[in-house]
Design brief:
Blueprint (H helix, E strand, L loop, with lengths): L1 H10 L3 H7 L6 H4 L14 H8 L1 H4 L3 H24 L8 H11 L2 H29 L8 H21 L4 H13 L3 H16 L9 H7 L1 H4 L3 H24 L8 H11 L2 H21 L6
Length: 296
């Protein structure tokens, strides 16, 4: 384990150079230190109006502001049409807002936007990471303020990746790979400490998707090719919803259990559903019978 940790810590010194050579835009480092107070706004068109209200800090041009304002007008019209067709259903404007932001803002402008929008939540998360870092006995020799800033920068970078590359999966993966590989030494140590904790907790309940569980047991459930495709399509659809929710609030855990069960009820026959529930419960019972790890 010691050799792996030493390699990982050494490797993070090389990754920024690799990132540049691969042509991956990473403006976070240049703009992370901005301290301007942002102007909050919590209405339906939060993201676009947030950008307009903070136009000076973000560096928006007059043309940018006009284009973003036009985006709000366009979405209001889209919302009216949606509500006519779907009365009583809430219109989700977030994906459209991010599409406008990605189209109009440069990488640098979008980066400042992300920092302003996420800095408070990222800082809160970073402080909790520091508390965990101290609790695990890893903080000796580390400066608290500097380390919290490093953790905070990581979360800002993650929000940038999911927002800027929302529809560009390959770029998002490349950016996230480099982000994880270029974590600070403290971030690497905390990662390995958490991995060790996970290995020790062998009885930890699985968070596996119910849809994935059904797909993996397709032979037992006697799923037809059509049903299998429907489950795969629904799994991809819900994963996209989860990614979108992460962009909006990357701290909050997003639970898809109810949505997955509803999909299973729609796709499976009554007998298949009963068998699936039996399979699922058998896994839970196995977990309970083994018992939870005792507290020390």
């Amino acid at each position: 384990m010691k050799k792996i940790k030493t390699f990982a810590i050494a490797f993070i010194m090389i990754v920024p150079l690799f990132t540049k050579s691969q042509g991956i835009s990473d403006p976070i480092s240049d703009y992370f230190s901005i301290e301007e107070t942002f102007i909050e706004n919590n209405n339906a068109y939060y993201q676009l109006e947030f950008a307009i209200n903070n136009s000076k800090t973000i560096g928006l041009t007059e043309t940018n502001i006009i284009e973003l304002s036009g985006g709000i007008d366009s979405m209001k019209a889209r919302e009216l049409e949606f509500l006519k067709m779907n009365p009583g259903v809430k219109f989700n404007s977030r994906p459209y807002q991010n599409k406008y932001l990605n189209k109009i803002l440069t990488d640098e402008q979008y980066c400042v936007f992300i920092i302003l929008k996420n800095k408070v939540k990222a800082h809160e998360k970073a402080k909790r990471d520091w508390d965990e870092f101290v609790e695990k006995g890893l903080s000796k020799g580390y400066d608290q303020i500097k380390t919290i800033k490093e953790f905070e920068k990581f979360y800002i970078g993650k929000a940038f990746a999911y927002g800027r590359y929302e529809t560009r999966e390959k770029m998002r993966k490349k950016y996230l790979d480099n982000l994880y590989n270029s974590q600070s030494a403290a971030g690497v140590q905390l990662y390995f400490a958490r991995q060790d904790d996970t290995k020790k907790d062998r009885n930890k309940k699985s968070d596996k998707s119910q849809l994935m569980l059904a797909i993996e047991n397709s032979y037992k459930l006697e799923l037809t090719p059509v049903q299998l495709k429907q489950l795969l399509d629904k799994l991809n659809e819900l994963n996209a919803v989860k990614d979108s929710a992460f962009i909006k609030d990357f701290e909050k855990k997003f639970d898809l259990t109810a949505d997955e069960m509803k999909s299973l009820e729609e796709i499976l026959t009554d007998n298949q559903l009963k068998l699936f529930v039996s399979l699922k419960n058998s896994l839970v019972n196995t977990y309970v019978s083994r018992g939870r790890p005792s507290l020390r």
